[in-house]
UniProtKB/TrEMBL annotation:
<dbReference type="InterPro" id="IPR050091">
    <property type="entry name" value="PKS_NRPS_Biosynth_Enz"/>
</dbReference>
<feature type="domain" description="Carrier">
    <location>
        <begin position="952"/>
        <end position="1036"/>
    </location>
</feature>
<dbReference type="InterPro" id="IPR001227">
    <property type="entry name" value="Ac_transferase_dom_sf"/>
</dbReference>
<dbReference type="InterPro" id="IPR020841">
    <property type="entry name" value="PKS_Beta-ketoAc_synthase_dom"/>
</dbReference>
<keyword id="KW-0511">Multifunctional enzyme</keyword>
<dbReference type="GO" id="GO:0004312">
    <property type="term" value="F:fatty acid synthase activity"/>
</dbReference>
<keyword id="KW-0012">Acyltransferase</keyword>
<protein>
    <submittedName>
        <fullName>Acyltransferase domain-containing protein</fullName>
    </submittedName>
</protein>
<feature type="domain" description="Ketosynthase family 3 (KS3)">
    <location>
        <begin position="34"/>
        <end position="461"/>
    </location>
</feature>
<dbReference type="Pfam" id="PF02801">
    <property type="entry name" value="Ketoacyl-synt_C"/>
</dbReference>
<dbReference type="Pfam" id="PF08990">
    <property type="entry name" value="Docking"/>
</dbReference>
<keyword id="KW-0596">Phosphopantetheine</keyword>
<dbReference type="GO" id="GO:0004315">
    <property type="term" value="F:3-oxoacyl-[acyl-carrier-protein] synthase activity"/>
</dbReference>
<keyword id="KW-0808">Transferase</keyword>
<dbReference type="InterPro" id="IPR016036">
    <property type="entry name" value="Malonyl_transacylase_ACP-bd"/>
</dbReference>
<dbReference type="InterPro" id="IPR015083">
    <property type="entry name" value="NorB/c/GfsB-D-like_docking"/>
</dbReference>
<dbReference type="InterPro" id="IPR020806">
    <property type="entry name" value="PKS_PP-bd"/>
</dbReference>
Length: 1042
C-alpha cells in the first residue's frame, strides 16, 4: 500500500468515526427535544377556600360547588353593583362567583417587603411569591438551595387593575405602585427575590395564559435554558369591571354556575385563582429524587388567526393545536383517556370545542374506550389566567387518585353538538380510572384565550418509582425533628400545622423519614426548635407543646434563636465519671464506637486492665485515678468525634484539668498514641501518690482565699467569681473550709483519692516531665484556651514539657478561660463530657447582665446518653451552629410535609390601609460601583487595619463601620423623617427606618468602604449591623487568603 493509499484509508476511517459521533450527537439532541418533563411540585389558591392541591381534590372528588358571594373586603359597592335585570349600565345581574376571599392577605415580612410596599404591590404578585415557596417545598426542595440557579419563571397574568379606583393613596405607597402593578415584575420579582437566573417571562394571552406558560417552560427545559422551571398563572380582580362588562353582553350565567357542555348552559362566570407548577426534566427529577407527580408528554400553542371575530372561538384552530400537541408527544388520539376541557359554559364556545374534540380524539378509538370530557369550571367558575394551571393540577390529582371527578350542573349533553360523530362522553358522574399494566393513562388539558391564542397540553401518569432495595443499615436510637420559622408566632403555627398533618393519610409512619424531611427539605430560619424522641407519639407530644407556646423545658427539646457568635467545646475534668457513661452511644452510633475503640486500644497498652470493661461494665474501679483520667479522655474524644461527624466545627477549645489534654489532642497537638501515653502516665503517677489530702469547694472569691493558703495548700480551681476549690493537706484544708462555714458560706468536701492541683502533686512532676519530653508535638489546628493562663495557648506553650507539668500542678483557671472565650465572641459552649458539670459552672463565670451565652452539655447524669447527645446537637442548631444533617439521615425515604405557616395580614388599598414601615429590601439595581483598582486598594487598606486587632476587636470595628454607613444611608434616603433609634450592632435594619432605597444605598456605601463585591440581597440575608459585620469579616479573610 502506498503512502497516499494509507492517507486515504486514514481519512476514511476518521470520516466514519466523525459521522458516527455526529449521528450520536444528533440522536441526543433529538431525544432532548422530546424528553418528558416531570411535574415535581404544585401549589394553588382557588375558590372554596382551597389553599392546596389536597383541598382541591377534596372539592372535586366530593362534587362540591365553590361559588360564593362577591368579595366584601375590596371596597366594592355591592349594593349598587347588583341589578337583577340585565342591561342596566354599571351593574351586573350576577351576585355570586368563584372568589378568592382574603386575596389581600400576605406575609410581607417573610419576603422582606415593608407594609407600604406590600400595600403598593398587586396581590397577584404577592400570591405568586407564596405559591412559588410552597411549590418548591412540596417538591422536597429547600427554597434557599435554588438561589443562584438557572431556574426559569413563566407566569400568566391578565389583570392590571389593582388600585385603579383609588382616589387618594396613603402616604408613601405611590412610589411602589409602578413596579407593584407592572406585568413584567410579576415574574421578575420572583426571580429577584428567589435569586433565579433562568428565563423570566410574564405571559398575557388572557384565559390561556397559564397553559401557555407551561408550554414555554417545557420548551425551555428541553432546550437547556434552565434546569428547573416554575409555570403558572393568576387572576385576582381588583375591580368588578369584568362582571359589569360581560353582564352588558348578557354572557354571564344568571345563577353564577357554569354548566359546561350541558343542554342547560346559559353563560360563563368569572372566578379568581392562582396556581404554580414546578417542572424538571424527567431524568433530572429521578436522579435528584424529586417526586414525579405526572409527566408532560407534549404541548402546542397556536392562534385562531383571521377568524369570524376577534373573540370568537375557532374550531379548526382548536383541532390543529390538539393534533400538534399529539405530534409533539408522539401519541395518537386513542392513547389519551380524558380531556380537561376549556368548557366555559357559553352557548357558542362549548359546542365548537366539543366538535373539535370529536373530530380529533373522538375518531378511531377502541371499542368501549371513549374520550371522557370534564371541566373544573363547573366547580369553581372560570379562573381566567389561572384556569389552565388549575385544570392541570386537577388532572394530575385525578391521575394520582385513579378517579375521574364528575362535571357539575350537567343534565344532558348540549344538543347543539352531534355527539354521535365520535366517541366522546361527558363525565356526568365520577368514574374510576385505574392503572393498567403496560398502558400509561394520559389526559389532555385545553385552554383557549379570548384573543385567539390556543394551548393544549398532554399529561401522562408517572411510571411507578423503582422499588426500594434493601434498606441500608441505619443507627438505632432517637430521632430529631427540626422546625424553624421567621418569627416565634410562625414557629408555633408551624408546629400546629405539623401536628395536624400527623393525622392525615399522607403522614409517614416512620418518624425517621419525617425527621429527614424536616432537616433537609426545609429552610432553617432564625427561630428554631429541635425535638428528640424515640417514636412518633413522644415527638408529637413535644410538637403540641411547642404549638401551644410551652417553654419546652421538658427533656429532649431545644428551643432558641439563631445568634451571632462562635462555638467553643469544653472538655470536662475529673469527678464527672460514672460507670456506663457512653455505653448507649457506643451501641447507637458507629462513629462513637470506632473512636472509643481506637482510643481504648492505645490506652490499654499502658493500663493494668482493658478500659472498655472498666468504663461500660465496672470491671475495675473507675474512681481510681489511673482509670478515671484515661476513661474521661476516651469518652470525651469519642464524643468530640461524634459531633465532628455531625458537622460541628468549633472555633476554640478548652478543658478543665484532664479535659485540657483532650482539647490539645483533638486540636492536633499530639497523635492519639502520644496523647494516650501522656494521659495514662498522668493518671498512673497521680494514683501512685500516697493516699491522703483533701479538696474542698468553697463559696468564696479567690482574693478571699489567697491570704489563708499555707505551703501545704493550693487553689486547685477557680470555677467562678465566688467558686474556688482548695486542695492539699487534709487538716489545713479542713481549717479553711471551717473558716468559710462560720461565715455562712457553702462548703463541700469533694470525694477524691488525692489532693489534685496542690503541693501534694510535686513528687510526680519530674517523672511526668520525662514522659512529656518523649512525645512529638504539632501546632494546634484549633485554638486552645489555656486553663493555666486563661489566655489562648501559644503553639510554643502547648509544645513545652514545662507547660504540661505546670498544668498538672497549677490552678485550673476555668472561670477566667470562659471569660476569655466570651471576649473572643464565643456565644455557644458545648460540654463534651459525661455530665453537665462545666455547663452548670459556666453561666456563673460571666457578667451578671450577660445573657447572650448558652452552655449545652452533651451528656447528663439524669438522662439517657443518646437522647441527651442529640438534644445538645439540637441546641447547637437552634443557636445557628451549622449541622450536617445528612450524617444523621442517610437512608430515609422521601415524604411529604406541611408547607410554611405564613403569618399574613391584609393589604388592600381599597380597604383600611396600614402604612407603618417595617421591613423592606432592595428593589432595584445599584449605582455604578467604584473601579476594580479602587476597590482592591480599599480592601487591602481595611485588611491591614484589621490585622492589628483581635477577632472581637475586628468585629467591633466592622460593626461601627456598618452602623455609621447605615445611619448616613437611612438619613439621606429619608431626609424628612426623624429617627429616634440610635443604630447599634443588634438594630434590625428594617425595623429602624430602612426601606428599599436606603437598603440599596447602604449596600453601595459598604462596597465603597470595604472594597468587597456585595449582593443587593445583603440586608435581606444579614438583617443587623452585627450580622453584616461578621459576614464582612469572613469575606475579607477569604479574599485575602485566596
Amino acid at each position: 500500500m502506498t503512502v497516499s493509499d494509507e492517507r486515504l484509508v486514514e481519512a476514511l476511517r476518521a470520516s466514519v468515526t466523525e459521522n458516527e459521533r455526529l449521528r450520536r450527537e444528533n440522536e441526543r439532541i433529538n431525544a432532548a427535544t422530546r424528553e418528558p418533563v416531570a411535574i415535581v411540585g404544585m401549589a394553588c389558591r382557588l375558590p372554596g377556600g382551597v389553599s392546596s392541591p389536597e383541598q382541591l381534590w377534596d372539592l372535586v372528588d366530593g362534587g362540591h360547588d365553590a361559588v360564593t358571594s362577591l368579595p366584601t373586603d375590596r371596597g366594592w359597592d355591592l349594593d349598587g353593583l347588583y341589578h337583577p335585570e340585565p342591561g342596566h349600565p354599571g351593574t351586573t345581574y350576577v351576585k355570586e362567583a368563584g372568589v378568592l376571599h382574603g386575596a389581600g392577605a400576605f406575609d410581607a415580612g417573610f419576603f422582606g417587603l415593608s407594609e407600604r410596599e406590600a400595600l403598593g404591590t398587586d396581590p397577584q404578585q404577592r400570591i405568586l411569591l407564596e405559591l412559588v415557596w410552597e411549590a418548591l417545598e412540596r417538591a422536597g426542595i429547600d427554597p434557599h438551595t435554588v438561589r443562584g440557579s438557572d431556574t426559569g419563571v413563566f407566569a400568566g397574568l391578565m389583570y392590571h387593575d389593582y388600585a385603579s379606583g383609588v382616589r387618594k393613596l396613603p402616604d408613601g405607597v405611590e412610589a411602589f405602585l409602578g413596579l407593584g402593578r407592572s406585568g413584567s415584575v410579576l415574574s421578575g420579582r420572583v426571580s429577584y427575590l428567589y435569586d433565579l437566573t433562568g428565563p423570566s417571562v410574564t405571559v398575557d394571552t388572557a384565559c390561556s395564559s397559564s397553559l401557555v406558560t407551561l408550554h414555554l417552560a417545557v420548551k425551555a427545559l428541553r432546550g437547556g435554558e434552565c434546569s428547573l422551571a416554575l409555570a403558572g398563572g393568576l387572576a385576582v380582580m381588583a375591580t368588578p369591571d369584568a362582571y359589569v362588562g360581560f353582564a352588558a353582553q348578557r354572557a354571564l350565567a344568571p345563577d353564577g354556575r357554569i354548566k359546561a357542555f350541558s343542554s342547560s348552559a346559559d353563560g360563563t362566570n368569572w372566578a379568581e385563582g392562582a396556581g404554580v407548577l414546578l417542572l424538571e426534566r424527567l431524568s433530572d427529577a429521578r436522579r435528584n429524587n424529586h417526586p414525579v407527580l405526572a409527566v408532560v408528554r407534549g404541548s402546542a400553542v397556536n392562534q385562531d388567526g383571521a377568524s369570524n371575530g376577534l373573540t370568537a372561538p375557532n374550531g379548526p384552530s382548536q383541532e390543529r393545536v390538539i393534533r400538534a400537541a399529539l405530534a409533539n408527544a408522539g401519541l395518537t388520539p386513542a392513547d389519551v383517556d380524558m380531556v380537561e376541557g376549556h368548557g366555559t359554559g357559553t352557548v357558542l364556545g362549548d359546542p365548537i370545542e366539543a366538535q373539535a374534540l370529536l373530530a380529533t380524539y373522538g375518531q378511531n378509538r377502541p371499542e368501549g374506550r371513549p374520550l371522557w370530557l370534564g371541566s373544573l369550571k363547573s366547580n369553581i367558575g372560570h379562573a381566567q389566567a389561572a384556569a389552565g394551571v388549575a385544570g392541570v393540577i386537577k388532572t394530575v390529582l385525578a391521575l394520582r387518585n385513579e378517579q375521574l371527578p364528575k362535571t357539575l350542573h350537567v343534565q344532558e349533553p348540549t344538543p347543539k353538538v352531534d355527539w354521535s360523530a365520535g366517541a366522546v362522553e361527558l363525565l356526568t358522574e365520577a368514574r374510576p380510572w385505574p392503572r393498567e399494566e403496560g398502558r400509561p393513562r394520559r389526559a389532555g388539558v385545553s385552554s383557549f384565550g379570548i384573543s385567539g391564542t390556543n394551548a393544549h397540553v398532554l399529561l401522562e401518569e408517572a411510571a411507578p418509582e423503582p422499588a426500594d432495595g434493601p434498606a441500608s443499615p441505619r443507627a438505632a436510637g432517637p430521632v430529631a425533628w427540626a422546625l424553624s420559622a421567621k418569627s416565634a408566632d410562625a414557629l408555633r403555627a408551624q408546629a400546629a400545622r405539623l401536628d395536624a398533618f400527623l393525622d392525615t393519610a399522607e403522614a409517614p409512619a416512620d418518624p425517621y423519614d419525617l425527621g429527614h424531611a424536616l432537616a433537609l427539605t426545609r429552610t432553617a430560619f432564625d427561630e428554631r426548635a429541635v425535638l428528640v424522641g424515640d417514636d412518633t407519639a413522644t415527638l408529637r407530644a413535644k410538637v403540641r407543646a411547642l404549638a401551644e407556646g410551652g417553654t419546652l423545658s421538658l427533656p429532649g427539646a431545644a428551643r432558641g434563636s439563631r445568634t451571632k457568635g462562635r462555638l467553643a467545646v469544653l472538655f470536662t475534668g475529673q469527678g464527672a465519671q460514672r460507670v456506663g457513661m457512653g455505653r448507649e452511644l457506643y451501641k447507637t452510633y458507629p462513629v462513637f464506637a470506632e473512636a472509643f475503640d481506637a482510643v481504648a486500644a492505645e490506652l490499654d497498652r499502658h493500663l493494668p486492665a482493658p478500659l472498655k470493661g472498666v468504663v461500660f461494665d465496672g470491671e475495675g474501679d473507675l474512681d481510681r485515678t489511673e482509670f478515671t483520667q484515661p476513661a474521661l479522655f476516651a469518652i470525651e474524644v469519642a464524643l468530640y468525634r461524634l459531633y465532628e461527624s455531625w458537622g460541628v466545627r468549633p472555633h476554640a477549645l478548652a478543658g478543665h484539668s484532664i479535659g485540657e489534654l483532650t482539647a490539645a489532642h483533638v486540636a492536633g497537638v499530639w497523635s492519639l498514641a502520644d496523647a494516650a501515653r501522656l494521659v495514662a502516665a498522668r493518671g498512673r503517677l497521680m494514683q501512685g501518690l500516697p493516699a491522703g489530702g483533701a479538696m474542698i469547694a468553697l463559696q468564696a472569691t479567690e482574693d478571699e482565699v489567697l491570704p489563708l493558703l499555707t505551703d501545704g495548700i493550693g487553689i486547685a480551681a477557680v470555677n467562678g467569681p465566688r467558686s474556688v476549690v482548695v486542695s492539699g493537706a487534709a487538716a489545713e484544708t479542713a481549717a479553711i473550709g471551717a473558716h468559710f462555714a462560720e461565715l455562712g458560706r457553702r462548703t463541700k468536701k469533694l470525694t477524691v483519692s488525692h489532693a489534685f492541683h496542690s503541693p501534694l502533686m510535686d513528687p510526680i512532676l519530674e517523672e511526668f516531665r520525662q514522659v512529656a519530653a518523649q512525645l512529638s508535638y504539632n501546632e494546634p489546628r484549633i485554638p486552645v484556651i489555656s486553663t493555666l493562663t486563661a489566655a489562648p495557648a501559644t503553639p510554643q506553650e502547648l509544645a513545652s514539657c514545662d507547660y504540661w507539668v505546670q498544668h498538672a500542678r497549677g490552678t485550673v483557671r476555668f472561670a477566667d478561660a470562659v471569660r476569655t472565650l466570651r471576649a473572643q465572641g464565643v456565644a455557644t459552649f458545648l460540654e463534651s463530657g459525661p455530665a453537665a458539670v462545666l455547663s452548670a459552672l459556666g453561666p456563673g463565670c460571666l457578667d451578671a447582665g450577660d445573657d447572650g451565652a448558652v452552655f449545652l452539655p452533651a451528656l447528663r447524669v439524669d438522662a439517657p446518653d443518646a437522647p441527651s447527645a442529640l438534644t445538645a446537637l439540637g441546641g447547637l442548631h437552634t443557636r445557628g451552629v451549622p449541622i450536617d444533617w445528612t450524617a444523621l439521615y442517610t437512608t430515609a425515604r422521601r415524604v411529604d410535609l406541611p408547607t410554611y405557616a405564613f403569618q399574613r395580614r391584609d393589604y388592600w388599598l381599597e380597604a383600611n390601609a396600614v402604612t407603618t414601615e417595617t421591613i423592606s429590601i432592595p428593589e432595584t439595581g445599584t449605582a455604578t460601583d467604584p473601579g476594580a483598582d479602587a476597590l482592591e486598594a480599599t480592601r487591602h487598606a481595611l485588611v491591614a487595619r484589621l490585622a492589628a486587632l483581635s477577632a472581637p476587636e475586628q468585629i467591633a470595628h466592622l460593626v461601627d463601620l456598618v452602623a455609621a454607613q447605615a445611619e448616613t444611608a437611612r438619613t439621606e434616603q429619608n431626609p424628612d423623617e426623624t429617627f429616634d433609634d440610635e443604630l447599634d450592632g443588634d438594630s434590625p435594619f428594617f425595623e429602624v427606618g430602612f426601606n428599599s432605597l436606603s437598603a440599596v444605598e447602604l449596600r453601595n456605601r459598604l462596597v465603597e468602604a470595604t472594597g468587597l463585591t456585595l449582593s443587593p440581597m445583603l440586608l435581606f440575608d444579614y438583617p443587623t449591623p452585627a450580622y453584616v459585620a461578621e459576614f464582612l469579616q469572613e469575606q475579607l479573610a477569604a479574599e485575602e487568603g485566596a
